[in-house]
Structure formats: structure tokens, C-alpha cells
Amino acid sequence: MNQAEWYRRIPLWQDVPLEEWETYRWQMSNRIQDVDKLRQVLKLTPSEERAVSRKSGRFIMGIPPYWAALMDPDDAACPIRRQAVPVEDEYKLSPNDMIDPLGEDSHMPVPGLVHRYPDRVLLLVVEVCSMYCRFCTRSRVVGTTAGYSRPANIDAAVDYIKAHRKIRDVLISGGDPLTLSDERLDDVLAKLRAIPHVEFVRIGTRNPVTLPYRVTEALCAVLKKHKPWISLHFNHPKEVTLACRKACGMLADSGLPLGSQTVLMKGINDRAAIMKKLFHELLKIRVRPSYIYQCDPVKGTAHFRTPVSAGLQIIEKLRGHTSGYAVPTFVVDGPGGGGKIPLMPNYVVSVKDGVWTLRNFAGKVFTYHEETSGNGARTSSVEPSYVLIQ
Ligand SMILES: *Cc1c(COP(=O)(O)O)cnc(C)c1O
Ligand code: SF4
Questions:
Q1: What are the strands, taking DSSP E only, across 269-338?
Q2: Selecting from 3.20.20.70, 2.40.50.90, 3.30.420.40, 3.40.50.2300, what CATH number does the domain 105-343 have?
Q3: How confident is the model at residue 246 (pLDDT cuts 50, 70, 90)?
């Protein structure tokens, strides 16, 4: 067994040839969707067994063999496993839980198009993902038949964007847009690129992480034509495998800038050392971490949620202690549709009469004096309420 055929240790897949294993098509048609198959890959805990066997009210499960082979078969706390395998905690509802925590459905002028910020929109083009994340903010639509990928829906969204000249930025998401065929993707990108005021297009996708074989020369050729930025979604350093590095390398070599967002989750990545390792791994593959999200109060995800302070503590331990590019912005998406609200540790000790007393990453205190004009008046000032001093 050579290193490329690591998956063959799992009896279920021991006869699968590497050429087949490494295709998106084989991976998608052999996804794990029921308890019998999952049992052949993992030693299930009673909680997993019961949650996966439940027939009704369950958020869809779908695990590509690639992702399943990365899971620790004996450890239910494995971060790869916890992101993909349902547990009974998903049925313990919290009073904070919401179906649509970001209020997206109420900000849709046409189905699948969320227009929350003045200059940019979120365009949902499909409900399918290669792997269904247990904490998904859009669990109300992913894996369903909301119909976002219907050509008529996409055309209505494109018409809306055409008619609103202030929209200069389109974020294509879903579901996972890379579950569309290369041809469909080419078509959507071409339609958006044909709108003169759309100057920036990005694709939000987890496929290079959850099923990296989706990234092929043919896909790269399509993307190269339309030059979108790529927004990835990484949560743990274990996700940065050989195959994932190769996929990200192909995207970067195609000239596409790569960013990543991370969802903060209890027991998965809520320690600064894990986040730092993840972000260092990402810089190595030319991926720039952009956001850490406080876990949204999606129905059935209370067991993943950390205190907000956990995110602040992580930023405190990163900023100044490592490369600035490895430090994303920590945000809370305002429940009900507030958008991304950034939170930062407080570095302002005091501010008075243009004198800013600040602390640095190591806790040392420094003062910065604002300029005064000839008559002694300050040339700039700040509303005292703008700076929160603890
Ligand atoms: C996150 C998001 C965006 C993009 O926001 P950026 O801060 O530019 O990354 C746009 N629209 C919606 C609805 C979003 O949730
Ligand atoms: S890939 Fe994204 S949209 Fe799909 S289930 Fe995961 S978090 Fe949700």
C-alpha cells in the first residue's frame, strides 16, 4: 500500500482503484448517507448510532468517502468526525435557536439573492454540498429542494443585479457552488461578468476542503476565464491534507486569490494553538484567513457554541504574536440580519485630549499624541463613546 492509497485500510473501499477514488463523480455517488454504511467506517457511539438512525426531523447527512477516511474511527471527539456525523445533541434545542439566524429569507428580493449590504449581494445558486456540516448556518435550505439552481431563478437574480447599479460585489454561495457542473458554473460566471458594474465576484466553497478532487484542470480553466476570488472554509488543521494542498495549489496557480473563513466551535477549534496551527497551514498553501465566525444560533447547534469571549481570547493570542496575514477578523453575525459585527480585544487604555494610551500585544503601554493645529486645537478627535474602555 503506497501513501496515495491510504484509504485502502478501510475494508469497504479496499478494492477501489486510486483513479476512481480521486474523482468527484465516484466520491459523490459513494457518499455515506445511512447508518449501515457509516458503521463500516466508524465504531459508532450510542449517541451517533441513534442520531443517524433517526428518520424524521434530521438535518441531512452526506459524507464523501474522502472525508470519512480522514475521520478517527475510534475517537468520537475527532474534529473531522464531529463536523460530519450527527449526534443526539442536535435534537436538544436551546431557547436561542433560530431556523434562519441571519434573517436571510427576509432579505431576499428574489429567491436565492440576499441583499443586505449596500454594495454587495449573496447569490445562492444551489442547495447541494458534497459534505453536510452539522453546524451549517443554512441548514434550513441545504440538502432541500429550494430550487435555487433553477435557471429561471438564477436569471431573475442576474436581472436584479443588472437593475441595481450600486451592486459591485457578488458572492456566489449555496449550498456549494462547485457542486454545479463546470458548464453551469461557466454560465453563471459569464452572466455576472457581463454586468458592467459588477467588478468583484467571489465563490464561497468548501469543496476544496471536503472533497478536493472537485478541483480539476477543466474547472481551473473555467475559473481562469472569469477570475473570481475563492472564499474557502477551513475549521481545523487536519483538513489541510495532501489532496487539499494540491487542490488549493491548482487554484492559486490559476491566479485566483484564496481566502478562508472559520467557524469557532467548542471542542473542535476553540483553542488558540489549534487556530494558529490552522492559519499557519493556510498561509503555506497561499490561503489568507479572513474571518472567524462566532457560531450562529442555528437550530440544533447549541453543543457547538462557545462563549463569545473564546473568540476574543484567540485573537488576543494571535495578533502581534504571529504574521498579520494569519490573523483573521473575529465577527458575530448579528442574529436576525445585523450582518457581520467585528469584535476585537481592547487595546485602548485611555483616550483624552488627543492623547491615546494604548497597550501592545505584550501588554506594554505606549502613548500616541494626535497633531494639534497652530491655535492648539486638535485636528482630529474621536467621540469618547466610540472607544470602549474597560
Ligand atoms: C458575509 C456576507 C457578505 C459578504 O461580506 P464581506 O464582509 O464582504 O465578506 C455579503 N452579503 C451577505 C448577506 C453576507 O452574509
Ligand atoms: S459546505 Fe457550507 S453550505 Fe454546505 S453544509 Fe457545510 S457550511 Fe453548510
A1: 287-293, 329-334
A2: 3.20.20.70
A3: very high
